[in-house]
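Milestone 3.1: sequence recovery, worked example.
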């Protein structure tokens, strides 16, 4: 049997595929080689049958992957891919001289150098053995290998995540979200748990339609602190809950970063948010028999309202790319920072599950899970469960964050966004396109794929969607990976459902928290691995149990976040852990001297109401119990000093104020409890013998009088750090449209 040139291989394969496709789809004539499978009316069952017929044609000599027809959705592209695959194993020809016969694979001359069977992957210009197999027919599939370049070449020093906040199902803040993940909890419920009423909205416990009842819902999505943002009640009632959550969560993310939101007026700060362009709240309004409010339910106003509230001068851009929306938003925020378009960026996404008719549509199209769980990578995966929530991150250039002494959660090293182009169907994922996004993000990050420890997968919970993503990840991240160190994989959707426009930022926040805790939470609902994924051939492992983050002395922790959407969008992000001790820039302080010992400190607390001030003081008491009490005595003083510094320069200061003076954790706790008491008594100020007593006492008096206090003078000669502290306690009231009374 003679070896055929590459073009002849493709001609043989093309003729074979045309005949098989004609048989599968019962076409009266042979389809054209350029015809797209989707244009011919192929569905997923036909795709499976075509793949099975291809493998029967090759007998046991070669096995095409389960997603090959999805990834190469035309005779031409599929023939080119198969030819490139088979070229590495030897020549091919029709065994009986007819293009419709069975194919034979000739072993290469050097059988010892033959690569072991591996998961299917698209053709690349460079084969695994380094030889060039590029042909004219392969140009469409040309996918340059990821080139690892040092950051000095890419110009990328990284984008620091300096603040985060979230409001997810079963988790109103970061701490509760981590506790939910660590405990392996499932936030999906049959109906909303808050009182409502919820007539006209998804999650209504009284709705007889189970598909509209089941979801992962945010507690109190009907509630909002309108007064805090100077919004009239009548306007607040007509505001989409996505807008409300974005406002509050953005404020909390800035506070988490120790950044005074009021200090950003006029700054080059941009807002980038994934948010659905077609508000489901409009349908609730219509169901209530009321007129719509365009300002309250359009995505452009949602991001514009954040910029207006904070007085930001940077761009405010909404992104509606379905499930990839929030990661695309973060990509554009990162790009804007790298191109010096902005000095800081607020990025994330929000989603509200409110429309029973949309739930019904998704259910009828087979996208929603009949079992009521997101079972990503499981043999019983049958779709996803809709979820709602909001997540926001605060981004800065890494150099700027270090210079400012910011607390750095992690560093975004590379991002990429692309589109599927053509495919088997608009809503079907595309493996080669996902691989291109992964490789581009890795190249921009200057990271070798085999070094990445963990992938937060999209995990759509559909048999072929899961297989496409897993095969794409294994192909890219499995390259030269040590079999003893597989790529760890998980998906937050198994905990909190699919948050659609906010799903990717939920995955990012989960990954950042896991990095900082050194533990990857367990992936739920995987009892029997999907039969559509060749697990034995893939260098990946789903974290079905809580897993310690892999240790490496040679490099920081590395992770990736993947997302794709029914719109055909793909987005990928490469994340690096940050060791605060390795790259902190020195900040002003007494050269060569130790931190000056101070006997007395001031903790300024403020709110817009007495009730909120009392609640804030109570939150600080709880924070002390969780963060300060376990520390050794020598470390508590430093923590409390950083707390006082962050609360002074990293918070907005409102009219209702309390100045808590303290000298140690006991006096601080006593002062906080006095403020948190129902009568709002303030901490007693007793004279102190320290030299700084008069300065601190005067600052406390001035602060409670409503004056501006030069807080920097209270820390003169010190080098302090911003830390995460309790956020503002929003005072929620119900703002919802009620049905018009007949």
């Amino acid at each position: 049997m003679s070896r055929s040139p590459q073009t002849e291989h493709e001609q043989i394969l093309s003729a074979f595929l045309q005949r098989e496709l004609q048989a599968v789809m019962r076409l009266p004539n042979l389809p054209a080689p350029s015809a797209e499978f989707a244009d011919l009316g192929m569905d997923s069952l036909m795709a499976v049958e075509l793949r099975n017929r291809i493998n029967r044609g090759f007998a046991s000599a070669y096995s095409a992957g389960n997603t090959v027809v999805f990834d190469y959705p035309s005779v031409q592209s599929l023939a080119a891919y198969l030819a490139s695959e088979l070229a590495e194993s030897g020549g091919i020809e029709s065994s009986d001289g007819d293009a419709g016969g069975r194919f034979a694979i000739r072993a290469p001359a050097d059988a010892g150098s033959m690569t072991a069977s591996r998961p299917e992957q698209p053709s690349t210009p460079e084969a695994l053995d380094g030889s060039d197999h590029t042909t004219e027919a392969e140009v469409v599939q040309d996918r340059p290998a990821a080139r690892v370049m040092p950051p000095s070449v890419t110009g990328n020093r990284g984008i620091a995540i300096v603040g985060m906040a979230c409001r997810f199902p079963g988790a109103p803040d970061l701490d509760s979200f981590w506790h939910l993940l660590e405990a392996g909890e499932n936030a999906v419920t049959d109906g909303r748990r808050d009182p409502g009423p919820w007539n006209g909205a998804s999650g209504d416990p009284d709705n007889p339609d189970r598909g509209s009842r089941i979801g992962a819902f945010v507690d109190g999505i009907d509630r909002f602190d309108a007064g805090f943002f100077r919004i009239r009640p009548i306007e607040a009632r007509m505001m989409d809950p996505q807008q409300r959550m974005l406002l509050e969560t953005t404020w909390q993310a800035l506070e988490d970063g120790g950044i005074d939101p009021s200090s950003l007026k006029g700054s080059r700060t941009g807002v980038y948010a994934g948010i659905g362009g077609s508000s489901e709240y409009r349908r609730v309004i219509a169901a209530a028999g009321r007129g719509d409010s365009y300002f309250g339910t359009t995505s452009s106003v949602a991001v514009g309202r954040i910029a207006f509230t904070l007085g930001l001068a940077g761009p405010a851009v909404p992104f509606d790319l379905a499930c990839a929306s929030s990661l695309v938003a973060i990509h554009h925020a990162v790009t804007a920072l790298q191109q010096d378009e902005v000095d800081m960026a607020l990025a994330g996404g929000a989603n509200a599950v409110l429309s029973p008719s949309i739930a019904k549509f998704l259910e009828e199209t087979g996208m929603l899970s009949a079992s009521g769980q997101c079972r990503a990578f499981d043999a019983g995966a049958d779709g996803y469960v809709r979820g709602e929530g909001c997540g926001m991150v605060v981004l800065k250039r890494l150099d700027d964050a270090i210079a400012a002494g910011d607390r750095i959660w992690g560093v975004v090293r590379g991002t990429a966004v692309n589109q599927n182009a053509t495919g088997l169907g608009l809503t079907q994922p595309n493996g080669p396109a996902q691989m291109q996004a992964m490789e581009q993000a890795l190249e921009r990050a200057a990271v070798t794929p085999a070094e990445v420890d963990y992938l937060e997968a999209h995990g759509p919970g559909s048999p072929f969607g899961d297989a496409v993503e897993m095969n794409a990840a294994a192909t890219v991240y499995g390259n030269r990976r040590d079999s003893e160190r597989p790529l760890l994989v998980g998906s937050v959707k198994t905990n909190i459902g699919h948050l659609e426009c906010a799903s990717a930022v939920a995955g990012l926040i989960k990954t950042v928290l896991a990095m900082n805790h050194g533990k990857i939470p367990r992936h739920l609902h995987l009892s029997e691995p999907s039969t559509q994924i060749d697990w034995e051939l893939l260098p990946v492992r789903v974290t079905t149990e809580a897993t310690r983050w892999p240790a490496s002395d040679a490099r920081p922790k590395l992770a990736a976040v993947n997302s794709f959407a029914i719109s055909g969008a793909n987005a990928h992000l490469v994340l690096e852990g940050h060791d605060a001790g390795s790259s902190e820039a020195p900040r002003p302080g007494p050269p060569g001297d130790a931190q000056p010992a101070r006997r007395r400190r001031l903790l300024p607390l403020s709110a817009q109401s007495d009730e909120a001030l009392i609640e804030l003081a109570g939150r600080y008491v709880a924070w002390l119990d969780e963060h300060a009490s376990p520390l050794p005595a020598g470390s508590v003083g430093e923590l409390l000093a950083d707390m006082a510094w962050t609360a002074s320069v990293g918070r907005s200061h409102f009219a209702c104020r309390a100045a808590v003076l303290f000298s140690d954790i006991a006096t601080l706790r006593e002062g906080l409890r006095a403020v948190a008491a129902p009568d709002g008594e303030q901490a007693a100020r007793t004279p102190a013998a320290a030299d700084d007593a008069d300065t601190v006492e005067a600052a406390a008096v001035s602060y409670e009088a409503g004056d501006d206090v030069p807080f920097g003078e209270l820390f003169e000669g010190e080098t302090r750090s911003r830390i995460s502290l309790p956020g503002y306690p929003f005072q929620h009231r119900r703002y919802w449209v009620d049905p018009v009374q007949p």
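Residues 6-25 form the longest helix (20 residues). The chain has a mean pLDDT of 85.
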